[in-house]
Design goal:
Helices cover 47% and strands 22% of the residues. By secondary structure, it is an alpha+beta fold. β10 (328-333) and β11 form a beta hairpin. α2 (18-84) runs antiparallel to α3 (90-101) and α12 (501-508) packs antiparallel against α13. Bound molecules: ligand C2E and calcium ion (2 copies).
Length: 888
């Protein structure tokens, strides 16, 4: 039945199926038969009813006719009596009539009208008013009376409304008498009234159990033409059964229909219908069932056809697949051990001739001896456990070739209980070979990968380390610091800069420099704790990053250790190399953003401070350091702007001859006319300007303005024989110094450059020597400033041959108090004089100083005692007043 359930009778063609057509015809025939039977039943029913009505009607009619006839016969009897006794009187009339009417007639009264005037009456009671009625004179009665007379027949009229009440038929009888000779003469009229109600009642017309409805027409016995006087006039239009009621004169028509009407349902109608339905079912049901079964069978057959086709297609495809795939199919009956191979199996094993007689042994023998045990094991296991069988083995063909075969199979049990194992074999030699090759390729790729990985690691190491010292480099440090953003790795940074490294490099060569760097690296590495690390971040710059918790004391101790170690001389190829270190230290606040970056900047700031405070020391970064840096930065910006806006101008301080106090010269001193802070002296800006390397610009500006002012003085007729300007070491180092002086207008011997004593310490610099020579050649005097504070050797004095020395004011101010100081100054003056160098004393604050200096042979005096530095205009006024002479 499962097969049936899969069958589907297609809905789309429902009405075209033969079973449905047959069923439909059967249904149509059944319905037509039913309708016809129903119709016939109705006709029969109608006919029956008709007959019954006729029968009933006949009975009624007969009674009615009988009653009327008998009434008339009674009256006729009276008429015959009167015809024989024309002189009948009332008493006689009443007695005869009374006898006639009796109990069993419907006659109400009888009247006699001899000579057409009513004089006789029975019963008299209740009918008295009719006595004396003359037919000839009565308008209503005349006509029917005359008709009876004329026709000599009884004439029946009515029903009419009676004077006495009720309704009645009136029969008028003409009465003729015949004399003996046979001559007929009219006697008069006898009229009898038949009571309508009684007549109808006694004729059965009003009976309650009458199964028919009756109507009668024919007023005054006029037959079918007369008016209806009984029953419903509509009955005549309802296809009634009709009949004639024959009267002595004329007739009535009587009609009847069934009491329930014609259209009543036959009693057996439902019986008949049920029977028809039953019969119909008996016909249709078997036809339908047979039709359905037929359809089912048809569908089955179609399904079978379809499956057969499918099977054909499928096996064609299988065949094609097997043909093209070179897969061999085998089968082993596990009960009979019968082996079946197809042609391709034979080809695979190289025994194509004899495939019909293969056995399990044929197979096992063909399997490569090395694989035989395993192949057999695989097979037996699959059979034992009835599971899918997969095995790979080598096969040696009869031609001696070896190939790899893959065998797959599965155990089946057929309906009969026979067990088979069916499977396929195919050549996988190419796959096996390919796999081996892929494996080899994969291994070699892995090998190469690991080599590459090693190389990459090496390169990465190189990119993060310094090749000379092997220390981590700047990138490494940056990575570390960026990684330490979270705050737990780097706790403090020491920025270490080697002092005097450049000199060693310059004098002893790069190899020596490299040796010093390696030495420094090893000193640093040896000084730090495990977990800290040392990086080389520039030529002679190193960073130590501590990674464990630390404090200022520990860091200071570390810095001290390093400074001590680094001071120890390092032997290099017979030389004793010495260098020192400056260290800037910054401690971390890991909560801040850009933590690593800040730490580096802070350490750098601290290093800068350490260097500027003198070398071989360390400094911690702190907030005021930072504030200073910021202030300096602002000053630097202001200086650059001030230079642009010519805010640097010279003040002039006069110099006097010690003996005569005549003006011998003037020193130009730089002042910054600061837009917001007023006039600033050099100590407020020179240091910063020096760091910015803009002092030469200041010098240049002062020189130009001094020259320009000197032209004013000259024009004003003031005589100032010499103008001195201060020249920074930087300017003197400048190769382009001389060139920059071209185009400046001055007279030879009127311009003097004051150079700091310290400049002459380094006598090696060729540019300085050349520049000094050039200056002299240009007619510019050289003056040594601040003499006595530095270490200028007498040798350098001799070499440079300056025009003048200026004894530093630090040596001048104690002159009054100290004899030894006076001797020192005196001996300087002596040296100068012995070398032909004029001596200037600066910082002469009192006239006592001036006197002493004059006495010990000083040539020139400069100082507040005589004149303060002042702007050019003031200076001109000052000179004119000559007030310094009054002071003296
Ligand atoms: P300096 O060359 O030794 O200049 C003399 C300084 O001594 C001046 O200070 C001057 O005002 C001050 N002075 C003069 N008489 C007395 C005195 O009786 N008692 C005391 N206590 N001081 C006196 P100033 O103008 O502040 O200049 C300071 C230094 O700035 C100068 O020292 C000089 O080295 C440098 N300087 C000034 N102008 C320039 C310039 O244009 N270029 C360069 N490179 N340096 C300049
Ligand atoms: Ca000076
Ligand atoms: Ca000086």
């Amino acid at each position: 039945m499962t097969g049936n359930s899969k069958l589907k009778l297609k809905r789309g063609h429902l009405f075209l199926r033969p079973s449905v057509i047959a069923g439909s015809i059967a249904l149509a025939v059944t319905v037509a038969t039913g309708v016809f039977a129903e119709y016939q039943n109705r006709i029969v029913h109608h006919q029956k009813t008709h007959a019954k009505v006729s029968e009933q009607l006949g009975l009624v009619r007969a009674k009615l006719e009988g009653n009327i006839t008998s009434n008339i016969q009674l009256v006729r009897g009276l008429v015959s009596v009167i015809a024989t006794q024309p002189d009948i009187d009332q008493a006689r009339f009443a007695s005869i009539a009374g006898g006639l009417i009796g109990q069993h007639s419907q006659l109400r009264n009888i009247a006699g009208a001899p000579g057409l005037v009513i004089s006789l009456m029975y019963p008299m009671e209740g009918n008295e008013q009719a006595i004396g009625l003359d037919y000839r004179k009565n308008d209503i009665q005349r006509e029917p009376a005359m008709r009876a007379v004329r026709s000599e027949q009884m004439v029946l009229a009515g029903p009419v409304n009676l004077l006495q009440g009720g309704k009645g038929f009136i029969g008028r009888f003409p009465v003729f008498t015949e004399n003996d000779s046979g001559t007929r003469t009219l006697w008069g009229l006898v009229s009898a009234v038949v009571d309508v109600d009684r007549l109808f009642a006694e004729s059965g017309l009003r009976s309650d159990d009458l199964p028919i409805k009756i109507a009668i027409r024919g007023q005054n016995a006029t037959g079918a033409k007369g008016g209806v006087f009984f029953g419903d006039a509509g009955i005549f239009n309802d296809d009634p059964v009709t009949s004639q009621v024959s009267l002595p004169s004329g007739s009535w028509q009587i009609a009847a229909i069934p009491a329930a009407g014609w259209s009543s349902t036959p009693e057996n109608a439902w019986q008949i219908r049920f029977l028809i339905l039953l019969a119909g079912l008996l016909v249709i049901l078997p036809i339908s069932i047979v039709g359905y079964l037929n359809d089912l069978r048809h569908a089955h057959m179609q399904e079978l056809d379809r499956r057969r086709l499918q099977l054909q297609r499928l096996s064609r495809r299988h065949q094609l697949a097997l043909d093209t795939s070179r897969i061999g199919v085998w089968e082993l009956n596990l009960d009979t051990l019968e082996v079946t191979w197809d042609r391709r199996m034979g080809e695979l094993y190289g025994i194509s001739d004899d495939v019909k007689q293969v056995t399990m042994d044929t197979w096992l023998t063909a399997v490569h001896p090395d694989d035989r045990v395993q192949a057999n094991k695989d097979f037996q296991q699959a059979v034992r456990e009835s599971r899918t069988y997969t095995s790979n083995f080598r096969v040696t063909t009869s031609e001696g070739a070896t190939r790899w075969v893959r065998s797959i199979g599965a155990v089946h049990e057929e309906l009969g209980g026979q067990r088979y194992i069916v499977g396929v074999n195919w050549d996988v030699s190419a796959d096996v070979e390919l796999n081996a090759r892929l494996l080899a390729a994969k291994q070699s790729a892995e090998q190469r990968n690991s080599e590459l990985e090693e190389a990459r690691a090496q390169m990465e190491h190189n990119s993060l380390h310094d090749s000379l010292t092997g220390l981590p480099n700047r990138r490494f440090l940056d990575n570390k610091l960026a990684g330490g953003q979270a705050g737990d790795t780097v706790t403090a940074l020491l920025h270490i800069d080697l002092d005097r490294f450049k000199q060693i490099n310059d004098t002893l060569g790069h190899a020596a420099g490299d040796a010093m760097l390696s030495h420094a690296a090893s000193v640093l590495s040896a000084s730090v704790r495990a977990g800290d690390f040392v990086a080389r971040i520039g030529g002679d710059e190193f960073i130590i990053a501590t990674t464990s918790e630390t404090n200022e004391d520990e860091l200071a101790a570390l810095a001290n250790r390093i400074i001590m170690k680094m001071r120890e001389p390092v032997p290099y190829e017979g030389h004793e190399c010495r260098f020192g270190v400056s260290i800037g230290i910054a401690m971390g606040d890991p909560d801040k953003t850009n933590y690593g970056e800040r730490l580096l900047i802070d350490a750098d700031i601290a290093l800068y401070r350490a260097k500027s405070n003198g070398r071989n020391r360390y400094e911690f970064f702190n907030a005021s350091l930072k504030a200073e840096i910021i202030r300096n930065k602002r000053i630097a910006d202001d200086i650059l702007n001030g230079l642009d806006r010519n805010e640097f101008i010279p003040y002039f301080q006069l110099q006097f001859d010690a003996k005569t106090l005549d003006i011998v010269g003037v020193e130009a001193l730089a002042r910054w006319i600061h837009p917001s802070e007023g006039v600033l002296a050099p100590d407020a800006f020179l240091k910063t300007a020096g760091e910015l390397n803009v002092v030469p610009l200041v010098d240049r500006a002062i020189l130009e303005q001094t020259l320009w002012q000197s032209t004013r003085w000259k024009a004003a007729g003031l005589s100032i024989p010499k103008m001195s300007v201060n020249v920074s070491a930087g300017r003197l180092y400048d190769d382009d110094l001389i060139e920059s002086l071209n185009g400046l207008a001055f007279d030879r011997g009127t311009l003097s450059f004051e150079l700091l004593e310290s400049i002459f310490l380094d006598d090696k610099n060729e540019t300085i020597v050349a520049n000094i020579a050039h200056l002299k050649a240009l007619g510019i005097d050289i003056e040594i400033d601040d003499f006595g504070t530095g270490f200028a050797s007498i040798v350098s004095l001799v070499q440079v041959k300056p025009a003048r020395l200026k004894i530093d004011r630090q040596l001048i101010s104690p002159l009054l108090r100290s004899d030894s100081q006076r001797n020192l100054v005196a001996s300087i003056i002596d040296i100068g004089q012995s070398l032909g160098i004029k001596v200037v004393a600066e910082g002469v604050e009192t006239m006592e100083h001036a006197a002493i200096l004059r006495d010990i042979g000083c040539d020139t005096l400069q100082g507040y005692a005589l004149a303060r530095p002042m702007p050019s205009d003031e200076l001109m006024a000052f000179i004119r007043e000559e007030s310094w002479r009054q002071v003296a």
